[in-house]
Design brief:
By secondary structure, the protein is mostly helical. It has one domain: Orthogonal Bundle (434 Repressor (Amino-terminal Domain)), CATH 1.10.260. 52% of the residues lie in helices and 6% in strands. It is built from 4 helices and 2 strands. The protein has helices spanning 5-11, 16-23, 27-34, 42-52; strands at residues 2-3, 60-61. The N and C termini lie close together (11 Å).
Amino acid sequence: MKILLQEHMYSKNLTVRQVALATKIPKSTISNICNGNRIPRMDTMEQLAKGLKIKITDLFESPYK
């Protein structure tokens, strides 16, 4: 399963800092997710979706959605 956070940030022209402020998730966590060093938990995915104003299913790529 691929996390599409970086793609959404690019399309909305958002920085890691801006996403951190909108989601209340630490910059280091967002950076690690973007770099593929960390797989986010479901509560983190919910925070990201809410902060970016997208559906949670938009944050990942999977043949099962």
